[in-house]
Write a structure and sequence with these properties.
This protein is an alpha/beta fold and 253 residues long. The protein is built from six helices and 15 strands.
């Protein structure tokens, strides 16, 4: 069975870390409502939902993906690039230890889970303001015994690698070529976002369903034309916090 580890929206989400966006008056009540709809979509896609409690002292804690990279064999707790987010990790450790052996990225390495894209035994990691060379190297060292390869990838104009590219099929990725070079993903099928929707590359594949923000209808149509099953959700309030649909869950077996 699939398990989706989530965390309720902090009432302090309006104080979230922002890198590429300016503060725009996030409504915590609306953000919480959108998050509940997202969790229902995860459940409908076949997940058992594990919901960690909201924390008024951790504005970004709804974005659990950044705190861990979870594979079939192991869970790697990250060391987030934003120091304010490092107190989010203990709650994730307590939960993930129920499912996997746990290791952790150590200083001075930094790594955000939103920078990590997995397709099969390959992982790509964005070299971003949140993930540094030391964190990427440690991730590779943890995963090499299990037969995974880890490749650093340059990104531009976005917070995380998964802002630029995500998996939407067994060997298909949705990608914005202005943010990451498609050549990095040689061997995969590339589906580019509609040019009118530059922020449309973040999608969450759960089983055979792609959970996707309703704000990007042109790119949604491109996926549907490629026979990808899409389930849209409202996610605009969470997007104001530089969060996407991958950010709000850690999906594991």
């Amino acid at each position: 069975m699939l398990v989706a580890v989530t965390r309720k929206v902090s009432p302090a989400i309006a104080r979230c870390e922002l890198t590429h966006l300016k503060p725009s008056g996030i409504d915590p009540v609306l953000a919480a409502s959108q998050h509940e709809t997202y969790c229902r979509a995860l459940a409908e896609a076949g997940c058992r939902i594990v919901s960690l409690p909201a924390d008024p002292d951790l504005p970004d804690s709804v974005f659990v993906e950044d705190g861990a990279v979870v594979l079939d064999e192991i869970a790697v707790l990250t060391r987030p690039g934003a120091p304010s987010r490092r107190p989010e990790i203990p709650a994730l450790r307590a939960e993930l230890e129920r499912y996997r052996p746990v290791v952790e990225i150590n200083a001075p390495g930094t790594l955000d889970g939103g920078d990590v894209l997995q397709v099969g035994r390959r992982l790509w990691v964005g070299r971003s303001g949140r993930s540094n060379a030391g964190g990427i190297r440690q991730l590779g060292e943890f995963l090499e015994p299990f037969g995974y390869t880890v490749a650093p990838v340059s990104i531009r104009g976005c917070l995380h690698l998964k802002t630029a590219v995500t998996r939407v099929g067994p060997d298909t990725v949705l990608l914005n070529p202005d943010m990451v070079d498609p050549v990095c993903f040689d061997g995969l099928n590339i589906l580019e976002v509609d040019r009118s929707e530059p922020m449309a590359a973040n999608a969450l594949l759960v089983g055979e369903t792609v959970i996707y923000p309703e704000a990007f209808p042109a790119t949604r149509r491109k996926m549907e034309q490629a026979d990808i099953q899409v389930r849209t959700v409202p996610a605009g309030e969470l997007a104001k916090a530089e969060g996407g649909v991958t950010c709000c869950s850690i999906v594991l077996r």
